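C-alpha cells please, single chain.
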Amino acid sequence: MTITEFLLARLAEDEAGALISPREWWSERLLDECEAKRAIVDECTAASEWAASPDCDAPLSYSTLAGALLGALRHLATIYADHPDYDEAWRP
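Here you go.
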C-alpha cells in the first residue's frame, strides 16, 4: 500500500463516519476537513508525478520538490499513525 492509497482510504473512512454522525456541526466540519485533505493529497500526488516525469523543466531539482511533497503527505499520514496499516517508514 502506498502512502497515497493509505491516506485516501482513511479519508473515505472519516467521511463515512461523518455521514452517520448525530451532530450536524461535527459532520459538516469533518466532511470539509476530508475534502481539504483529499485536495492536498491530489495536488501533492500530481505535482510529484509531474516532477518525476522526463518533461519536467522546473527550476527546483526533482529531489527538492519530491521531498517537500512527500513530507506533506507524511505529515497528513501521522494523523492516522495508530491505524494498523500505517507504515512507520512514513513518519516525518
